[in-house]
Protein: BRWD1 protein
Amino acid sequence: MKPKVTMIAWNQNDNYVVTAVNNHLLKVWNSCTGQLLHDLVGHADEVFVLETHPFDSRIMLSAGHDGNIFIWDITKGMKTKHYFNMIEGQGHGAVFDCKFSPDGQHFACTDSHGHLLIFGFGCSRPYEKIPDQMFFHTDYRPLIRDSNNYVLDEQTQQAPHLMPPPFLVDVDGNPHPTKYQRLVPGRENCADEHLIPQLGYVATSDGEVVEQVIGQQTVDQDEQGLEPSILDGMIRQLQLQQDQRTGADQESASNGPQNGEGTPRRG
Structure:
């Protein structure tokens, strides 16, 4: 087999270069002379993650499709720590990406099964308040393109970035309690009634009907007996308000300033 390089990384002070080869070896090179210094043995499949420590020039992290995560001392050619990403009942999970924290005390990895792995010093108690499964309810909604080739959400016909902040759900689409919904940017200060999603029945691609989050219904609407406001209705209302504000601003600009401070009058 002809060797091929799959990944290259410089260490923190640029004295060394580490290459990952498709024969599962990591090679450490002197960056000035090009001399091969070490062969790092441990991986059993191809490696696509090489991450240098943010300030310790000796440390390099590697991870690959074999589920192995190694921390190496590249000056000595030795592994200092090893973790194998075994998932109960499913075998190992390939590691797709890893990043150090700025202070170098932690690193996080993502794998092929959608897990976020966090390693570091200290207590894991701050992470225990987070549910095991966290998805946005809009994560797997289909997209379409309009006549201008812009991407739109298929259900609401709106650009995804203009839609309201999504709800947090588990892998089956069941919404999490309101205390978790406030973790979503844009929902931090929402009232409780705005953190209660509306559930509806949606047909999946294989014909199965499942209950999923489709929008939001407030307590006020329940009391008034109004129709449930699903997500596309909210979007249309927000768009209408924005159009009205834009029209009022344009009218005010054409009429000139309305007071001594030069502030245009709003409709």
